[in-house]
């Protein structure tokens, strides 16, 4: 069976190239459909220092059909769903070619972390954040890397909801002082894609209050 | 015809009486000349017109070739709609047209026709766009599309099938004695892998390239690799996607297994049809009639808005009541119409490949691989129920009309079966009664009238559901509906008769009852259009 041969060969190729710092292994030795891969966050990006684990399902028609990949590690990135880990990348869909390997696909994911495509977003909220305020976005993405992609990650730590979505604590306080609940405030601000508050922008503030009162 | 004169005044406020007086004119109807039927079927504007395009000389068409008289037209519309000019084609015919164009254009390009074909495919068969790009940047285009290798040393003797011993194919990772294929780029794979690769792509209709670079596989390459004329399949898919992409001008005939496409060159008049609550009905060369705007069967007296509202509602309710009416849905991304395949809710758009859920039209991905449960649909359901004033009552009203609608749909199918046997009956008349074929045509005409009456009746229940029940005109509509229902059942009963002797003896009755159905149908349609034009019948979410 050619698919098994090809997958075994791909695994060997990954082992033969430790420099790439890419890992690829079966979840369960008896099932060649299901693998986990991982790679390191590219240096000089908010993902630096993290190790990102990807769930890989190899279809029957592989390599003529692309593998199904999604992030197990939570990632804050415009092309990756912050909830499900689903990835929006052309080579995993229509631009797939049988010459692409699992390893080269993982490298493409690494490259995707390096250069997001906010105009073809998987996660609209994150993409908005990326386009509107890069500095704040980078901070949030780095926080997620630290919490979810590092060996000493989030386990046992309590995380501030507002901080997790890059929402300025001043903005939350502003509405808390008016007697609204924090959870609700964060939820509304996320929904509106607002990370920071301009005190002069009364229209927006009123819109938020209106929503909070609902 | 006297009744038409009377009808032309139907626009004044006492139009209500005109419908009434129409009811009483029943007795005046005498055995009809079958040639008059098209005069009465006001919605057949297109058919009259399409006879130019229709080369089939079946009885149907010759009967319909009678032009609509000006007085009828004026009488039946407030403002008239322009005629629709269309042609009926198959993908093969469209492809042949394209090939003709390519041969015609070939001197302009001075490259082999096979290459022009690839260029045309790349430009979605739009020759204007292609010619523009061609004059601008010929060489660049050939490279960009993959007809020419970027490297100068790409030699043409590499291209083709070769036999190799101990060839290591990097796709299947097998080392074997095998035939291989490569283009000028030298990216060489075993023939098995190449076949698998191409096989999957034939139905997509896109240009197929080398697995590792952008060089194009031409039709000759594809046929060489696959060993038979597989490129026709690819071309067929490409034309299909061309039709999908140009769905404003091209529509597939919605009838099951019908491969015809209606091409409407000028769509500018469609808006006028909508404004006047007419529907642009067309007919394929198999004789299937459907609405060009919404793709449904002939749905008068309902207009397209009422039809789509009704169908949408039926879909929404179908979960509760186990009704399945429609089998197609528009892709939420690119609006191409996709057919549902069996019971599976996982839809994949044939055009843009978007995967979505049939029930909620949301992205398929979050629906998970395990047990399928669509929460979004349920939410929707509770929301809309909350918003209604009296959901229970609305649902009851809907259920009531839907049952009637459905009943006539079932009956229509039975009528259709009846129609299948009518040929035998005419034959029996010929054999046993010495009746000529022409003389026996009244039977075929009657069954056609029955079908049309039944369809109009069916859709009139959608109009009834969406009409303001308290309005006087609605009441008149319902009366008209009842009269048509009775007329249709009477005719249907008459058509059950099997003995040739009885049929011939009752021949005048066939004329009478058909004529009556025809008149009732016309009255109901016009009354329905009046409801629509006056805003008494309008789609709502209820
Ligand atoms: Zn191979
Ligand atoms: Zn190549
Ligand atoms: Zn047809
Ligand atoms: Zn329509
Ligand atoms: Zn689509
Ligand atoms: Zn769903």
UniProtKB/TrEMBL annotation, chain A:
The enzyme's E.C. designation: 2.3.2.23
Entries under InterPro entries matching the protein: UBA-like_sf, UBA_C_fun, UBC, UBQ-conjugating_AS, UBQ-conjugating_enzyme/RWD
A GO MF label: ubiquitin conjugating enzyme activity
Keywords: ATP-binding, Nucleotide-binding, Transferase, Ubl conjugation pathway
Keyword Transferase attached: yes
Broad EC category: transferase
Domain UBC core: from-to ranges: 2-150
Keyword Metal-binding assigned: no
Active-site residues, record numbering mapped to chain: 88
Protein name per Swiss-Prot or TrEMBL: Ubiquitin-conjugating enzyme E2 1
PANTHER family the UniProt entry points to: UBIQUITIN-CONJUGATING ENZYME E2
SMART domains from the UniProt entry: UBCc
Species of provenance: Naumovozyma castellii
Biological classification of the source: Eukaryota, Fungi, Dikarya, Ascomycota, Saccharomycotina
BP GO terms, sorted: ERAD pathway; ubiquitin-dependent protein catabolic process; vesicle organization
Classification via Pfam families: UBA_3, UQ_con
Family statement drawn from the similarity comment of this UniProt entry: Belongs to the ubiquitin-conjugating enzyme family.
TrEMBL record, chain B:
GO molecular function, one term: zinc ion binding
Listed InterPro entries: ARIH1-like_UBL, E3_UB_ligase_RBR, IBR_dom, TRIAD_supradom, Znf_C3HC4_RING-type, Znf_RING, Znf_RING/FYVE/PHD, Znf_RING_CS
Compositional bias annotation for Acidic residues: 39-57
Keywords linked to the UniProt accession: Metal-binding, Repeat, Transferase, Ubl conjugation pathway, Zinc, Zinc-finger
Enzyme Commission (EC) number: 2.3.2.31
Enzyme class label: transferase
Annotated RING-type domain residues: 165-378, 169-214
Gene3D superfamilies to which the protein is assigned, alphabetical: 1.20.120.1750, Zinc/RING finger domain, C3HC4 (zinc finger)
One Pfam family this sequence matches: zf-C3HC4
Keyword Transcription among UniProt keywords: no
Gene Ontology BP terms: histone catabolic process; protein ubiquitination
Reaction it catalyzes: [E2 ubiquitin-conjugating enzyme]-S-ubiquitinyl-L-cysteine + [acceptor protein]-L-lysine = [E2 ubiquitin-conjugating enzyme]-L-cysteine + [acceptor protein]-N(6)-ubiquitinyl-L-lysine
Region listing for Disordered, in residue ranges: 26-57
Superkingdom field: Eukaryota
Protein name: RBR-type E3 ubiquitin transferase
Organism of provenance: Naumovozyma castellii (Yeast)
Source lineage: Eukaryota, Fungi, Dikarya, Ascomycota, Saccharomycotina
Gene encoding the protein: NCAS0B07650
């Amino acid at each position: 069976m050619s698919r098994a041969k090809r997958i075994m060969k791909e695994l060997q190729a990954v082992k033969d190239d430790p420099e790439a710092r890419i890992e690829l292994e079966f979840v369960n030795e008896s099932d060649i459909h299901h693998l986990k891969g991982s790679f390191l966050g590219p240096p000089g990006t908010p993902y630096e220092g993290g190790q990102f684990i990807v769930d890989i399902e190899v279809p029957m028609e592989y390599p003529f059909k692309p593998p199904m990949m999604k992030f197990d590690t939570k990632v804050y990135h415009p092309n990756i769903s912050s909830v499900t880990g689903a990835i929006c990348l052309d080579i995993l869909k229509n631009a797939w070619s049988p010459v692409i390997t699992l390893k080269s696909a993982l490298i493409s994911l690494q490259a995707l972390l390096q250069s997001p495509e906010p105009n073809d977003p998987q996660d609209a909220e994150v993409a908005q954040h990326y386009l509107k305020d890069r500095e704040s976005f980078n901070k949030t993405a780095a926080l997620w890397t630290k919490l979810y992609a590092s060996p000493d990650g989030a386990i046992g730590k309590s995380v501030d909801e507002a901080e997790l979505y890059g929402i300025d604590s001043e903005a939350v306080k502003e509405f808390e002082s008016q007697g609204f609940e924090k959870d609700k405030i964060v939820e509304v601000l996320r929904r509106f894609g607002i990370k920071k508050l301009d005190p002069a922008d009364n229209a927006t503030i009123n819109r938020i209050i209106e929503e909070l009162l609902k | 015809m006297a009744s038409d004169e009377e009808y032309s005044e139907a626009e004044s406020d006492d139009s209500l009486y005109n419908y009434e007086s129409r009811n009483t004119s029943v007795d005046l109807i005498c055995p009809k000349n079958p040639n008059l039927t098209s005069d009465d079927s006001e919605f057949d504007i297109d058919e009259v017109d399409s006879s130019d395009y229709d080369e089939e000389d079946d009885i149907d068409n010759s009967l319909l070739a009678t032009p609509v008289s000006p007085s009828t037209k004026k009488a039946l519309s407030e403002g008239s709609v322009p005629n629709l000019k269309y042609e009926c084609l198959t993908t093969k015919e469209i492809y042949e047209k394209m090939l003709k164009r390519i041969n015609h254009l070939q001197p302009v390009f001075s490259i082999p026709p096979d290459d022009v074909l690839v260029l045309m495919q790349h430009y979605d068969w739009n020759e204007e766009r292609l010619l523009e790009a061609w004059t601008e940047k010929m060489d660049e285009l050939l490279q960009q599309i993959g007809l020419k290798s970027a490297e100068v040393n790409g030699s043409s003797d590499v291209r083709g099938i070769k036999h190799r011993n101990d060839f290591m194919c990097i796709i299947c990772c097998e080392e074997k004695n095998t035939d291989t294929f490569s283009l000028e780029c030298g990216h060489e794979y075993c023939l098995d892998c190449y076949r698998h690769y191409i096989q999957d792509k034939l139905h997509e209709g896109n240009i197929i390239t080398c697995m590792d670079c952008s060089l194009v596989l031409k039709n000759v390459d594809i046929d060489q690799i696959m060993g038979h004329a597989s490129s026709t399949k690819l071309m067929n898919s490409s034309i299909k996607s061309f039709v999908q992409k140009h769905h404003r001008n091209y529509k597939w005939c919605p009838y099951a297994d019908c491969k015809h496409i209606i091409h409407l060159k000028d769509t500018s008049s469609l808006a006028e049809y909508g404004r006047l609550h007419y529907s642009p009905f067309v007919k394929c060369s198999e004789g299937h009639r459907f609405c060009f705007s919404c793709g449904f069967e002939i749905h008068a007296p309902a207009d397209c808005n009422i039809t789509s509202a009704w169908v949408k509602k039926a879909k929404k309710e179908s979960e509760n009541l186990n009704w399945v009416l429609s089998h197609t849905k528009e892709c939420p991304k690119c609006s191409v119409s996709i057919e549902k395949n069996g019971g599976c809710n996982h839809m994949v758009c044939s055009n843009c490949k978007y995967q979505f859920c049939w029930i909620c039209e949301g992205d398929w991905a979050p629906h998970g691989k395990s047990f399928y449960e669509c929460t979004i649909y349920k939410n929707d359901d509770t929301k809309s129920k909350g918003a209604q004033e009296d959901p229970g009552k609305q649902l009851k009203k809907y259920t009531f009309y839907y049952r009637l609608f459905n009943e006539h749909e079932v009956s229509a199918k039975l009528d259709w079966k009846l129609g299948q046997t009518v040929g035998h009956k005419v034959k029996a008349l010929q054999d046993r009664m010495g009746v000529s074929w022409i003389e026996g045509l009244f039977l075929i005409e009657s069954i056609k009238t029955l079908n049309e009456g039944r369809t109009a009746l069916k859709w009139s229940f959608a109009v009834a559901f969406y009409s303001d029940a308290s309005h006087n005109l609605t009441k008149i509509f319902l009366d008209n509906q009842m009269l048509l229902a009775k007329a249709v059942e009477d005719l249907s009963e008459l058509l059950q008769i099997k003995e040739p002797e009885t049929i011939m003896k009752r021949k005048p009755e066939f004329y009478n009852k058909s004529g009556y159905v025809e008149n009732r149908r016309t009255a109901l349609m016009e009354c329905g259009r009046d409801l629509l034009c006056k805003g008494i019948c309008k789609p709502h979410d209820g």
